[in-house]
Specification:
Distance between the termini: 51 Å
Number of strands: 25
Structural class: alpha+beta
Strand content: 25-35%
Mean pLDDT: 97
Number of helices: 11
Bound molecules: calcium ion
Radius of gyration: 22 Å
Largest sheet: 7 strands, mixed
Low-confidence stretches: none
Shape: globular
Helix content: 10-25%
Strand order of the largest sheet: 7-6-21-13-14-16-8
Length: 440
């Protein structure tokens, strides 16, 4: 199921929240991403919607009787799990109502607009929290460009393993160390086996890296033992955020065989606070990855015409780096890569359907990571491991600094957005994290 276009996508409509009409902003009337926030004045976490530079308090709007009946209780909860569980008809009803309440045309100056305006909080006064209580987090490996580049470094003889074009490869991550954007990241300690060392060593990671990924939050999900057919997969995707799968490459290369990532990955995973719905992204769908001649077709449970024609997402994803020296000199964060999610070998629907294909039950608020988003061009590689060829070709930054891997004090910033003539630009906001020194 793909969302169809309706009045909520109409780019000619403006919001009476003036900052939402900035054509370069992330949160116009056509976006309406949901998240969880609190303020000093109202410290209980509750759902909100980003509009321009404001957050609309959904708990308050619901209490005033202004939301569809079926979502009011879910909009009073301290996480979005209950809203995620309701499914696409309820999500769409909420989006439609919010679009009316925040639209300049549908909510003219008057008592109703004044009542809604009373439920707005400036974003700068809001503390944004994780959108959901994540029960399970799974990380995939859906970019064939990333898989090939990384495989070439770790296994030059067989960069891409034979299962890659058949199975959406993934592993079970760790939900306890998911953190919201802005939370500092402590450099992990761990075991590695440096070249030339007589024995493995334990200490702070010397090859700390980021991975640029898209996160998908699971909606209603499925009962144990009941798969989710591909045609219905998107009914169980509440929306997407940015995700940084921080990775300690020196730990990873020593520990990853035979069971895959473990302590190299589970010390922290950062998620951006705003969840953008697939309905908001409906105008920006793209064809699924065009498999070159010679690649196998996906097995039938992972293939249908709708997924092939529009299973992809035309989302631009950027990585910026800000070092302590740049910060001290007021140098702005430096763009180190820019890729596009439409280059992924597997679509979000295929990842979700594959995950549930054995009967594994997915629950509301579960999180799926896409895997590092790397597009074919060198400047579109989504981690330092690839960008610097495992540290051998360091990046040069403004001011002459160089980076093979992350240093203490470095801040990594992800941004995501999509734009197309005739439609309002939709942004995902930012996903940020600064590296703290290893604990002693
Ligand atoms: Ca990853």
């Amino acid at each position: 199921m793909m969302s169809t276009l309706n009045f909520t996508h109409d780019a000619t409509r403006r919001s009476w929240v003036e900052t939402a009409n900035d054509p370069t902003g992330d949160f116009p009337l056509q976006n309406l991403p949901t998240g969880i926030f609190r303020t000093a004045a109202h410290p209980l976490p509750r759902p909100g919607v980003a509009i321009g530079d404001q957050v609309l308090d959904l708990a308050e709007v619901g209490s005033a009787g202004m939301l569809p009946t079926e979502v009011i209780e879910a909009c009073r909860q301290p996480t979005l799990n209950a809203l995620m569980a309701l499914g696409p008809a309820a999500w769409s009803a909420l989006r439609g109502r919010l679009s009316e309440l925040l639209g300049a045309d549908t909510c003219p100056d008057g008592p109703l607009r004044a009542m809604i305006a009373d439920c707005l909080v400036p974003l700068r006064e809001a503390t944004l929290l994780l959108p959901a209580r994540v029960g399970d987090y799974t990380d995939f490996y859906a970019s064939i460009h990333h898989a090939t580049n990384v495989g070439a470094m770790f296994r030059p003889d067989s960069p891409l393993l034979p299962n890659y074009k058949w199975v959406p490869v993934g592993y079970h991550g760790r939900a306890s160390s998911l953190i919201v954007s802005g939370t500092p990241v402590r450099r992990p300690q761990g075991q590695s086996n440096p070249a030339g060392s007589p024995a493995p060593v334990f200490g702070p990671s010397q090859q700390l890296d980021y991975e640029l990924e898209l996160a998908a939050f699971v909606g209603p999900g499925n009962p144990l033992g009941t798969p989710i057919p591909l045609a219905r997969a998107e009914e169980s995707i509440f929306g997407v955020s940015l995700l940084n799968d921080w990775s300690a490459r020196d730990l990873q290369s020593w520990e990853y065989q035979p069971l895959g990532p473990f302590l190299a990955k589970n010390f922290a995973t950062t998620v951006s606070p705003w969840v953008v719905s697939l309905e908001a992204l409906a105008p920006f769908r793209s064809a699924a990855f065009a498999r070159p001649a010679g690649d196998p077709a996906p097995l039938p449970y992972l293939a249908d015409a709708t997924n092939t024609a529009q299973g992809g997402l035309d989302l631009t994803l950027e990585v910026l780096l800000l070092t302590p020296q740049m910060r001290a000199r007021d140098v702005p964060a430096h763009l180190v890569s820019r890729g596009n999610f439409s280059s992924m070998y597997w679509t979000l629907a295929q990842l979700l359907t594959h995950h549930a294909s054995n009967g594994c039950n997915l629950l509301p608020g579960d999180l799926l990571g896409s895997g590092t988003v790397s597009s074919p061009e060198k400047e579109a590689r989504g981690c330092l491991l690839e960008l610097t060829t495992r540290g051998r070709e360091p990046l040069t930054l403004p001011g002459g600094e160089s980076r093979a891997f992350l240093q203490d004090g470095d801040e990594v910033i992800f941004r995501g957005y999509t734009a197309r003539p005739g439609f309002a630009r939709i942004g995902l906001g930012e996903c940020r994290g600064t590296i703290l020194p290893a604990s002693t």
